[in-house]
Design goal:
This protein is mainly alpha-helical. The chain has 6 helices and no strands. The protein folds into 2 domains: 3-135, no CATH class; 184-236.
């Protein structure tokens, strides 16, 4: 294996180790975010865009070269395979071209996977930090709200106590005033009773007069009936 393919295979093995490490479940995104913010990684990430593009360029060239060799050794003319040694040599070159093709393809693919995993872990860690800050802020707001409600309740209770005490003070009546009020109510009750008795007497008098008028009306009606009968007999 030539130097470039040995280097590419070693890089592929390193990529596999990095991907497996990034996918370990017991390492939280917060730890990865702390690691990514370290000085060493920060110094490397300053030119990470150029490094990433440069490695993609190198891997792309090797991948294209592996495709060229794969097509070259896959279409060997049967006339060239005159001896068993030449046939074995041709199959060996075909195998190497296929091996280089898979190495270059997987190395290029895993390079994109690593970049995507790092960006996702950073985004998840950032969202976790934001959610933690939002939760703490919500807890603080809830705590302040409870304190405000408790203070409001205590203010209402104090106001009610003040109003109750002031109400008790305003409801206090002097005994002399109380006796005067009772006497006034008694006089009003006596006056009302007298008024009722007077109205009752007037009612009785009115009833008696009404009865008298009814009797007189009946007498007059009887006289009119008698006179009417007498006139009818005279006419006959």
């Amino acid at each position: 294996m030539s130097f470039q393919w040995t280097f590419l295979a070693t890089f592929l093995y390193c990529e596999i180790v990095v991907v497996i490490t990034l996918l370990l479940p017991f390492i939280s995104p917060t730890i990865w975010r702390t690691l990514f913010k370290s000085r060493l990684v920060a110094a490397f990430s300053a030119g990470s865009k150029y490094y990433f593009n440069f490695i993609i360029f190198i891997f792309g060239l090797l991948f294209i070269d592996s495709i060229r060799e794969l097509r070259k050794y896959s279409n060997i003319d049967a006339k060239e395979l005159t001896t068993p040694h030449s046939e074995a040599h041709a199959h060996m070159k075909e195998f190497r071209s296929q091996r280089n093709f898979y190495i270059a393809g997987f190395a290029l693919f895993l390079w994109f996977v690593i970049k995507r995993l790092i960006s996702l872990l950073s985004a998840v860690a950032r969202k976790m930090a934001e959610s933690t800050a939002a939760r703490k802020q919500a807890e603080g707001a809830h705590r302040h709200l409870q304190e405000a409600m408790q203070n409001n309740d205590s203010d209402k209770l104090s106001q009610q106590e003040k109003s109750t005490s002031s109400g008790h003070g305003s409801n206090f009546i002097d005994p002399k005033e109380y006796d005067a009020e009772i006497e006034r109510y008694k006089k009003e009750a006596i006056q009302a009773r007298e008024d009722i008795e007077a109205l009752r007497e007037k009612y009785d008098t009115s009833v008696q007069e009404y009865d008298k008028l009814c009797n007189e009306h009946q007498k007059l009606q009887n006289k009119l009936d008698v006179l009417a009968k007498n006139e009818s007999t005279k006419d006959k």
